[in-house]
Amino acid sequence: MRKPRIVVLGAGYGGLMTVTRLQKEMGTDAAEIILVNKNDYHYETTWLHEASAGTLHHDRVRYSINDVINRSKVNFLQATVEDIKIEEKKVITDQGELEFDYLVIALGAEAETFGIQGLKEYAFMISNVNSARQIREHIEYQFATYKTEDEKNDERLTIIVGGAGFTGIEFLGELGNRIPELCKEYDVDPKKVRIVCVEAAPMILPGFDPELVKYARAKLEKKGVEFSIGTPLKEATENSVLIAKGEDEVEEIKAGTVVWAAGVRGNPLIEKAGIENMRARVKINKDLRAPGHDNIFVIGDCSLMINEEINRPYPPTAQISMQQGEVCARNIASLVKGSEHLEEFTPDIKGTVCSLGEDDAIGVVYGKKLTGTKASFMKKVIDNRALYMVGGPSLVFKKGKFKFF
Amino acid sequence: MRKPRIVVLGAGYGGLMTVTRLQKEMGTDAAEIILVNKNDYHYETTWLHEASAGTLHHDRVRYSINDVINRSKVNFLQATVEDIKIEEKKVITDQGELEFDYLVIALGAEAETFGIQGLKEYAFMISNVNSARQIREHIEYQFATYKTEDEKNDERLTIIVGGAGFTGIEFLGELGNRIPELCKEYDVDPKKVRIVCVEAAPMILPGFDPELVKYARAKLEKKGVEFSIGTPLKEATENSVLIAKGEDEVEEIKAGTVVWAAGVRGNPLIEKAGIENMRARVKINKDLRAPGHDNIFVIGDCSLMINEEINRPYPPTAQISMQQGEVCARNIASLVKGSEHLEEFTPDIKGTVCSLGEDDAIGVVYGKKLTGTKASFMKKVIDNRALYMVGGPSLVFKKGKFKFF
């Protein structure tokens, strides 16, 4: 009898958690497990703002997939997924086709540009290790070039961050710490540097506690960040952004660097595969399966779940992705065993901490509001916990965040 | 009675040596000494190829001028020289005018582009700390960007070095060592990277011992450097160079980075000042004065001296500049004392070592040919000696090059 084949697409938080739990739950004979991922490494999406600002080296935000999978139980295929053929039960990759009995789609998110002109061409997105590294290098190159100019173009030193949500704010926090270092490295007068956050919504960090938001804004402003709130970004050009002020007025801000951090959508492969979706995210059943597809699980940023308490979708977070991965692994194990009784997933939100750079943060943890070093400490605990969940103490030791006083 | 005022323009090898020797030779009452320099630091021009490749941090190639001058005897003015009014005995700077009784012009060299189209716009020059830092960052940005491209543009990873003279070869040696590091840092396949040296002359390192040249070429080729010799660079474009092959044929080489390292000329201020010159270099008298100007000394790369043994100019080297600085200081001291008997300068070429990257070099020292680690060691001795001459043992300790086995 042929063993059922489980194919997991993506080695992000959700996919990697699924695989590491499957390899614990299932015997070698029970099923064949194949993990497909574009890179041979996993990266911490929630740390990318640090690599982008240059406050943490990109090698610190990634680790080798082979270090955390049990290769006697899991086959890892480094490949780029090109299509998912639902009816034919197979996945097309740049390394060939792959049939599956059970499929886990955990392909993560992409930046959502909402059709704003010029963003794709001229703005950077904090999407992965490659793009984070490019942002870091782009900013450094702007500083280096500034010093070689006979006619100084001060606007080269302006950085626009589009979006005052979680990623935008965390990135601003890192930038605030990084700019003084950059000024020293490149002999640039700090007064010449501008950091401007442009946000369409009338507030920063929507959904966060107002008192904490106030703290965050004050701290970032103290680091030199200017906020332009309630002013939608209309267009990005090669060296500027146009933002709407009021009804008809448009203001141009010249800038050497534009980073777009204002929202994500699911993976376009979801749309291509013909699975019902909203912005490439699948509104999944409580057992994490795609409606109408008993053998297909969708987790992480490709999935959409409604928080019925507030009738809004849960945000795409690492925390939820990892919890989904655990339930997904147990549900697949049940199916393989022939049981039709699947577990229902309920997010268990332990807390949310938004970093404002090294040593500072805001957050709510187990219902308690935190700011400053306490919140920053909790952020590191959360980051280290994600490592622990996937790779145990040895991974925490290798890649964890510690501060020695 | 007013003290005579000595103004020294430039804190490169020649200018700084003049000032440090003047401050030893002369009492506080004998003369007023003013050193004018654009930056508040001196940089080691002969180490810039390392900072450009990224094998040595740019802070390692510079030191503060205030660390080596005796501020009770020398006034340092951080200013950019804009004009020299010979007849009026004054210097115009962006910080105001400065009268002088004795002037030392030690303003160094600029890159010579020989009118080749596009070089000024599109090629980088290894000229100073700012430009070296920009080259380093430009190359890193090309590597980072390559990894973010959907359609990989391999030519982005091609680096063209124009010129197979001293600077070109030393830069190629550093690049050969740097590329493997860059490939690791940016996850780039080393096979995708090309380094091409384009030289108009029919040989590399003209004037060097042929046996040593052969060694250098073989070593650089082993590091992946391709040589295109006897092929003048005709034009640089935004992303390529055009080189002449034979009579009528022109070959285009696409490249993400073009560095022009094929020769220098003196400072344009020499031409502006109306002093007789050849490519902005003054053919000086044996006492280092400009012909017809008894109170103006020209030393370093702005000066031109003929080596009568071979009837060719001496090359613009740090070694000669520093030796000139010593004689210049003694001659000025004589003039201030009222003596008209000035010393004649004769270069004392102790040796020439051309680095091929960390741990490898070729050279002739006291008439003996050296290669490999021995030559490399001598190169470090020479580099440290330059520091010692200006700033004594403490400067060698701070900025010197040592290798601990």
From TrEMBL, chains A, B:
Its EC number is 1.6.5.-. It is an enzyme of class 1 (oxidoreductase). GO terms for molecular function: oxidoreductase activity. Keywords: FAD, Flavoprotein, Oxidoreductase. Signal peptide: none annotated. Its cofactor is FAD. InterPro entries: FAD/NAD-bd_sf (IPR036188), FAD/NAD-binding_dom (IPR023753), NADH-Q_oxidoreductase (IPR051169). Pfam families: Pyr_redox_2. Residues 5-325 form the FAD/NAD(P)-binding domain. Belongs to the NADH dehydrogenase family. PANTHER family: 64 KDA MITOCHONDRIAL NADH DEHYDROGENASE (EUROFUNG), APOPTOSIS-INDUCING FACTOR 1. This is NAD(P)/FAD-dependent oxidoreductase. It comes from Bacillus seohaeanensis.
